[in-house]
């Protein structure tokens, strides 16, 4: 038996007020209704928590030193259709040289054709060479019909001239320039594996300058698909040979140095609000997350030896 405490409630119908002990006597249905009313009407007192489990992922890198010495080999298609591109190639390499000199003065350029059966070579050109030497180097090569950039590179680097050109302790940068596809039998993956084998103790990189779908060459007869596939294996796109500004893109690219200003996240689904970035174990805010590339883009270039860490959560 409930004792009345004289608590007065409104019956909701505008009639006489009811005591609590009177309400209890009305039965359990009313108690259920009151419970439902309180549950629906007091949602601010109820907290829902995300029960998904997550774990922490940490991606990091240590900024490497700048390059000390660099060998640049430019492999140029000198077939008839390429004759109107020779000047652009020369000017592009001279523009690149100015950028390289901001990093090191210990560099050299070499130029060869894409015809391994009629290999033509001009070089080496270094910091003591006049600008006109590099600008005209492509025009000095023999005009030959072959368009096999991969095999031409292989033959040259194993020749006497190639052995003299490549310095054992220098990083290596390879340019492949053609308005046609690579027409040899070597696949892009096999060519990359060979480059890794050939340069085991130094860094190497490639740049493909060719015709691309949707580029300014229009509906060209043949795109440089194998060159573009090779570029993708190095994490980049081909440059459009028909875009006269491609030489300017070189100065904006970071392939001429091993230094990085971004962190590629190893997990594709980071919880964005959980991301934290550290430079030498101190939290920093000068960064943005670029979703299409799944990278953290830093707003600065870390100094050599700096440790960059990105921590974030992902759902299990």
Q: Can you walk through the features of this model?
A:
With 316 residues, this protein is α/β, with parallel strands linked by helices. It has 3 domains: 8-42, no CATH class; 54-63 and 260-315, no CATH class; 70-252, von Willebrand factor, type A domain (Rossmann fold), CATH 3.40.50. It is built from 10 helices and 15 strands. It has a 6-stranded mixed beta sheet. Strands 3-15-11-12 form a 4-stranded antiparallel beta sheet, with no helix packed on it. Strands 10-14-13 form a 3-stranded antiparallel beta sheet, with no helix packed on it. Strand 13 (287-290) and strand 14 (295-298) form a beta hairpin. The longest helix has 15 residues, at 86-100. The model is unreliable at 1-28 and 30-44 (pLDDT under 50).
Sum this structure up briefly.
The protein is α/β, with parallel strands linked by helices. Helix content is 27%, strand content 24%.
Jot down its keywords.
four-stranded antiparallel sheet, 10 helices, 15 strands, globular, disordered N terminus
* Count of all domains: 3
Give the low-confidence spans.
1-28, 30-44
**Count of extended strands:** 15
Can you identify the CATH class of the largest domain? Alpha Beta
Structural class assignment: alpha/beta
CATH superfamily of the largest domain: von Willebrand factor, type A domain
The CATH topology of the largest domain: Rossmann fold
Fraction in helix: 25-40%
**Which word captures the global form?**
globular
Biggest beta sheet summary: 6 strands, mixed
How far is it from the N-terminal to the C-terminal residue, by CA? Answer: 53 Å
Query: Percent of residues in beta strands?
Result: 15-25%
Q: Which strand order do you get reading across the main beta sheet?
A: 6-5-4-7-8-9
SSE pattern, N- to C-terminal? EEHHEEHEEHHHHEHEHEHEEEEEE
> Average pLDDT across residues?
81
**Helix run count:** 10
Whole-angstrom Rg:
34 Å
């Amino acid at each position: 038996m409930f004792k009345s405490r004289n608590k007065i409630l409104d019956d909701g119908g505008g009639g006489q007020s009811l005591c609590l002990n009177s309400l209890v006597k009305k039965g359990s249905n009313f108690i259920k209704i009151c419970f439902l009313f309180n549950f629906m009407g007091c949602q601010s007192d109820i907290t829902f928590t995300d029960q998904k489990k997550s774990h922490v992922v940490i991606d990091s890198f240590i900024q490497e030193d700048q390059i000390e010495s660099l060998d640049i080999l430019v492999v140029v298609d000198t077939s008839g259709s390429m004759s109107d591109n020779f000047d652009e190639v020369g000017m592009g390499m001279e523009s690149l040289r100015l950028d390289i000199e901001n990093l090191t003065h210990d560099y050299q350029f070499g130029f060869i054709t894409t015809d391994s059966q009629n290999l033509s070579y001009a070089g080496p050109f270094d910091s003591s060479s006049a600008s006109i030497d590099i600008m005209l180097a492509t025009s000095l090569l023999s005009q030959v019909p072959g368009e096999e950039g991969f095999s031409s590179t292989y033959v040259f680097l194993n020749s006497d001239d190639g052995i003299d050109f490549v310095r054992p302790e220098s990083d290596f940068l390879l340019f492949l320039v053609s308005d046609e596809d690579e027409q040899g039998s070597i696949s892009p993956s096999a060519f990359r594996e060979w480059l890794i084998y050939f340069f085991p103790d130094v860094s190497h990189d490639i740049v493909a300058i060719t015709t691309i779908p949707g580029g300014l060459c229009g509906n060209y007869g043949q795109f440089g698909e194998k060159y573009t596939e090779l570029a993708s294996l190095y994490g980049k796109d081909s440059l459009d040979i028909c875009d006269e500004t491609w030489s300017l893109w070189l100065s904006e690219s970071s392939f001429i140095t091993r230094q990085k200003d971004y962190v590629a996240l190893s997990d594709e689904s980071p919880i964005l609000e959980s991301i934290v970035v550290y430079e030498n174990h101190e939290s920093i805010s000068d960064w943005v997350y670029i979703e299409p590339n799944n990278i953290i883009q830093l707003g600065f270039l870390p100094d050599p030896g700096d440790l960059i860490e990105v921590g974030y959560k992902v759902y299990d």
